[in-house]
Design brief:
Radius of gyration: 24 Å
Order of helices and strands: HHHHHH
Distance between the termini: 27 Å
Low-confidence stretches: none
Helix content: over 70%
Structural class: mainly alpha
Strand content: under 5%
Number of helices: 6
Shape: elongated
Number of domains: 1
Number of strands: 0
């Protein structure tokens, strides 16, 4: 009985030392890693473009085969076209989730610590780059405004309401996906650390 208690105390002390060591390493190397998060953002952007292209190709092919008419601005939207639009929206959100999961995974895998922080960092970089590009577009003026060049008259009131809702949903999907990806990337290193500790 005494021998078992001694062994239990020894195991507890070993696990305690390992836990303290992991905590000390995370305190030293944890937190946002902006360079790593930018690379995660680049990965997420790449896969967003690729996956959106795939979704668009699928929806366009199905729409062509079903003979769905292309709606004109202000005209009635056919049921088939509306259903394809919903399918495209759902497919786009799934593509966005996968892309930002992979981006968060890349950031968490490279940073090794603080998976949640790395996922948030990927989304922060997305917002920062979007604001910079938006500022550049505003500074360049209507000459580089695609809608203006195509003579599209957009109702800004409707666009603002729909835009705010879509922006919130998009950010939520991106944030959840990137955080889960960051945690998965960090978990890879945790499994290696446990294997090393068991061997030592």
């Amino acid at each position: 009985m005494a021998q078992q208690a001694d062994n239990s105390d020894a195991l507890y002390s070993v696990s305690g030392v390992r836990a303290r060591r992991r905590a000390a390493l995370e305190d030293r190397f944890g937190g946002l890693a902006w360079g790593t998060d930018f690379l995660g953002f680049a990965v997420a952007t790449f896969f967003t473009v690729v996956l959106f292209g795939i979704v668009g190709a699928i929806v366009g092919t199905v729409g062509y085969q079903m003979g769905a008419p292309v709606p004109k601005v202000g005209a009635h939207v056919a049921n088939t076209t509306a259903n394809l639009g919903i399918a495209g929206l759902v497919g786009g959100l799934i593509a966005l989730f996968i892309a930002y999961f992979l981006g968060g995974y890349a950031a968490g895998r490279m940073a090794r610590f603080s998976g949640v922080a790395q996922g948030i960092g990927v989304v922060v970089w997305t917002v920062v780059v979007a604001l910079i590009l938006g500022a550049i577009g505003a500074a360049l003026g209507n000459r580089f405004n695609v809608g203006s060049q195509l003579n599209l008259h957009i109702n800004m009131g409707v666009l603002t309401t729909a835009g705010v809702v879509s922006l919130i949903v998009t950010l939520i999907v991106m944030l959840i996906a990137a955080i889960l990806g960051g945690l998965a990337g960090v978990a890879y290193h945790r499994s290696i650390d446990r294997a090393v500790e068991e061997m030592s």
